[in-house]
Each structure stands twice: as structure tokens, then as C-alpha cells.
Amino acid sequence: MKSLKRYKKSLKAGFFACLLFIHNALSYDLETLSHNPKWLKLLHFKNGKSEIDDPKFFLSKEGKTNPYKELVATIQAFLESKERGDNHPICKFPARFQFLDSLLKLKSKLSFFPECKELNKFLREINPQKISIIFSDYYINSPASMYGHTFLRIDPPFKSPLLGYAVNYAANADAKEGLMYYIKGLTGGYKGFYSIFPYYKKIFEYANLESRNLWEYSLNLKPEEVRFITLHIWEIKDHYSYYYFFDKNCSYQILYLIDIVHPEYNLTEHFNLWTIPVDTIRVLKEKGLIINLHFRPSATTLISEFIKGNPDINKNDISMAQKIARFEINIKNFLKEKSISTVKKAKILELSKNLFLYFSIKEKLPQKVYKKRLLKLLSARSKIPVKIPIKVKKPYPPEYGHKPAKISFEAGSENGKKFISTTVRTAYHQLEDRDTGFLKGSEIMFPAMTLKNFPDRNKTVIDNITFIKIISISPRNIIFKPTSWLVNFSYQRDWINKQKKPFINFETGFGLGYESHFLYYIGISSGAQINLYNSKNSRLISGIKFISIYSGRKIKHIFSIYPGLLFYTNNITKSVKFNYKSSFFISQNTSVTASLNYVILGGRNFYQFAFSTNRFF
Amino acid sequence: MKKVLAGILGAAVIALPSFAVNKENVGCGLGYMLFKDAPDSTLFEILAVTTNGTFGNQTFGITTGTLECKQPEKVVKNDRLFKFVTENMDQLAADIASGNGEALDTVAELMNIPVDKRDAFYRKLQANFDKIYSSETVQSADVIDRIVEIAQEV
């Protein structure tokens, strides 16, 4: 560190003299070189400045905004450092060195080459050969993860992907801070760092703890390119940039690592206002960088697929497996049981094993109980020498889904008044959109707005602004018993007396989901509607919500009914809301929707019907 | 309702318990993934809120822990194998018991077991499960030593 400071000082003192020396010595136009796309990418330069915020990442004081001065300072530090070991700038910035050396032949001008012990140890351990980008599925129970997540995996020359290393970009955030956690996450209040961990730890974190499927896309990069990326990870690993949830997030920063070997693709340039993880996969695919895809099921997917793939395992067998996993029946007696075939025993125990591993996490088994039971169960499984391989049917990959933004043009009638309207949604997925590539029964709107025009009256109103809306309908079955829930916070015109008036609307609900041919939800909902102009019109609403969804490749039908009570300051009225929507999917990013709302409110009826064409972008 | 709230505000509002230091060393035995960061048996909370990895001061998890572990005797320096087995004790046990699985394939690859001999090797390991994972306190070094013994017989 001291040496660095010294160089910065000497740099200041003899800047021009040095410049002259370096220019002469290298006979290379450094001014031109400082605009080289690869150099700019190595500095994470975009829109006139580096996106790295840590001053220690720069060897020149003005390095963050001046790539030329950073270039001169870097070359000077490489050539003049007296450090023999890990503190030499060549050891600290090995990717910069490799790049500059390839053009300027710096090695021949060094009086000695430093011994980079730590770096070499790191390179031996990683032994980089191949690289993949991993997409971790949507996790709707946490707002920070509901759009999914991406990270890289660097592989040594082994067949097993478990020996790879996951390179992740994450905020050094403290979730204890509650609301501040979100505010800081959105406004750059946290420092983001690259990190690197064995891939199996990430599998455990995502696939086991959070039950998220992982999609592993191998990238079409040469070993020397993978090595260059690894060198860059080394030089950037301790240097922060401020984390912004919407744009400069994990998926965005991961793209820089690919940008440095393919600056001509300019991947980071595709993302300015926001970066949605799956969009980064799409861009990589467009550039032809993705050559292969492997699906890694989560703990819950594995269990569901095991049951689907073994139709001979019936309900009784499943409940038997559950009892074994919970140690409610004696395993030894089960092994001795003569009425069950050996293959079936193996299958039941295989299921018990996976259930046990899942339950032990969900139910937080104490360490001692966990270890004892694990060995007992596995010992029983090992007594039946029959292999039961699990065949997992790969769902549609996330990039096959529709794009996250949507614009809809609508025409219809609001209780006889003709209207046309336009809705713009920035993200992400609604119940009436095609499920392909998304979580079934989920809706995330964040945010959206509808403008409505009544041509006969020459009037335009804001019909709706949805700040956030989430619906999570997760079906319950013999094994999994999740709670479904919904939340909605919006500005919305709604029926009151004979017309629609604007309300600030807040609704939450929770209930149960089931699936057969349809997906069903039934739950309790309650909310508040605050009238902006007349507080007497403000009301609380409480009721039972029922939703049913039919979902096909080409068509989707959604029906919901919501009977409830409206509480005003001085009276109570009944209300029933019916909602029907049908969507027809023309292509991945185009659909048409017909909808009908019917509301019975205080003895009066209101309706709205509309047709819309929707385009996702 | 609690769940709904948690859903709205994210798992993030759950306060993290502070973990007392426990004498029992789980670093080299079963339960590595589960209990390594939370040795006093009330585990997961700390991991449950990782949500896209927005956690941690530690950014570099390359050279973690086999230093404090008992060293295997029967295997000539194979650090990658030692580290992998230590950190995947449970998954490897689960694979050996079933006679197949990715952790088992990884171990076979690291031990250079020829592909055509793996079936027999896996069957032999499965038959010897109780010997390999002999007790709840079994250490990774013991597991490796037993596996090496068995490999020599195949």
C-alpha cells in the first residue's frame, strides 16, 4: 500500500517528465491506447467515468474519470515498482498487465519480474478452463430476488460441475435494517463486491435452502479468455462499487466480466435504466455466446419430479415415505416388510431421503437429531442395492418467456361509456400472461399505469397506477403445504355510487392454492380504499376471494369472485366483484385479452368490458 | 398474516440471531453445509436471508477449511478431494447410500477411478455404507480412508 502512495506522489511530481519517458520508451500512442475498448472495459468505464467507486482501484487520482491518466499511471507503476512480491502492481492488476504487455511488450522493459505467490495459488486452485452463466429462478417470497439472479461459474478441467467456482456480485448489505435495507438497496446505499465460492455452496444456498431451480448456460469462450476473466476477478475482488437494485445490480456487474474479453459486444451498454437478470441471458444468446444449457432442479422440484417420474409410487407409498422421513415408523420393520417389492422399497426410501433432506432444513432440525436420523435413514437405503435414477423433465427455460415490459391498447365500455385506454407496465408478469418460463400462478407488477380516454366526453383520466402488486399462488399437495398470498398497492378509479372515483388502494390477502386441471386459490382479503377528494367516501373492504386459472400454451382463462363487506364511516354495504379474463397468445411477445368486470355494490350493478392487444418488450 | 407481512417486506425483516461460539467442531464432519456457520444447532436463519447473496463480509471462499481437520492417511496429497469430501459430507453420504449421484461421481473423478469401473466401485461403497459412515462423529479423513481402502479392492 505504501508503495502505491509513493508512486502516486512521484507521479504527481514528475508527471510530465515520466510521460515523456514512457512515451519514448514504448513508442506507442498512449492517447489512442487509452480509448481502446478493452482498456475501458477493464476500468469498467461507461458514460465518461468508471463504475467502480473504490478509489483504491485506480492508480491515478483522476483514474475514475480519466482513462489516459490511469493508463500512464498503471504503466509507470508496473515498470517502476520496487516491490518483489504480492504487493507489486503486476500482482495486483494482472489482467491490466496481460493486456498492456500484449501491446507494449512491457516484460522486456522490466528489470525483474515480481513473484505473485497469492495470485498463483489462486490460479492453481481455480485452474480456469470453461465458464458458464447461472440463472437462479424467481424467488417470489423475497422482493430482492423475485426477478431471479445470475452469477458465473468458472470450471477447472474436470467433468463434474460441482468442482467449479461461483463468481457472484452482491451488495454487502445488512438485512437486519428492515425498511432501510430496501431504501439503501434502491439508492446505492450499499457497497457491492464480487465474491467467489465453490459452486456446491451456491447450489446448497439456492437449490436447497431457497428451493430455486438453477439454469446453467455454458458460454462459448476460449480457455485463455476464461483465464483473462479470472485475472480480472482477482484485480477487482476487493474493490467496491455502489449497488443499485434496478440497474447496477448483480446481473449487470456480471456482464462486465464478459465484456472484457468481448468488448465489441458491449454487453453492459444494453442496460441503462434497469437490468433484469433474464434479459442478460437473452443478450448473451443473441450474441451467440451460449452453447449449452443444463437444468439443475431445486430440492422441491426434485421431489415433485421423482413422484411424476415413478407412476407406480401411489399416495400410500408417498405417505409411507413421509412417515419414514419423519421417523414415525420403524425403518427396520419397513425393510423386513414382505408385501412390498424390493424395487418399490428402494423407491420409497429414495423419496424418504430427499424428503428428509428437505424437511430437516424447513423444520430446522437440531444438529444432533439431524445427524442421527440422517445416518439411520441412509444406512437403511444402502441395504437395498437398487439404483433409482431420477429423470427430471426440463421446464421451459426462463428466456423462452415473454419480455418483462408490456404495453396494452384497450377499447371497451365502462357501464355504457365507450373508452380507449393505454397501459404501460415496466415489469414483470401478470396472471393473464403466458406462464412459459415463469412461475405458474404468480403475478408481479412493479410498476404500471393506465390512461383512459372517453372520446364522447373528450375526457382523459388516470385509471390506475400500480406501485406494486404481487400474487403468489402456490398449490398445496400431499407433501408441500405452502401459503399463497397477495398484496396490492395502487392508485385506482373504482365504483362508488353511480360512478368511478379515484382511491388510494391497499389490499392484502392470504389463503390456499390447489391444482388439478385448473389452478385454484381461495383466501381472505382485506384492504383500505382512501378517497382523495372526500374522506366520507373512504372505506375498508373485507371478504373472501376465489380465483381459478386455466393455463394452456395458447390460451389462458382467469375467473375470480370476491364477495365482501364495505365499511364506511357511518354504514356498511355488501359488494360482490366478478372478474373474467381470457388471453390468447399469438407469439412469445404478443397476445390479445378480453375482460369483463361485473360489480354489485349496495344493490346497484356496474360493468366494464374491454378488448386489448398486448405487446411485450 | 405474519407470513404475508414477511412476504411484503421480505424475509429481510427477520432479525438474525447472534450465534454463540460452540466448542463442537462441525467443520470436518457431517452437517458441514448446515451447521458450519451456526454451530449451536439453531441453524438456518443466517442462511435463510441470503436472497441473491446480499450478505457477507467474506468475499473469497477459496481456501476454507481443511486446515483444522484430521488428515487422511491413505491418500497421497489430494487437496481437492479432501476439501470436497469435507465440505460435502452429507451429500456424499446420501449418494453412497443410493449408489449414484453427482457428489459420488465427483469423488470418483478426483480419485481417477476409470469410468468402466465406477459401477462396481459404487456398488461396493453402497454395500459398505455402515463402515464408511460409521458414526455421527465420523470425520472426513476417516471417510476418505475407507473409500480409498474399498477402491483398492475394486
From TrEMBL, chain B:
Q: Which UniProt keywords apply?
A: Signal
Q: Where is the secretion signal located?
A: 1-20
Write down the superkingdom of origin.
Bacteria
Q: Which Pfam families match?
A: DUF3015 (PF11220)
Q: What is this protein called?
A: DUF3015 domain-containing protein
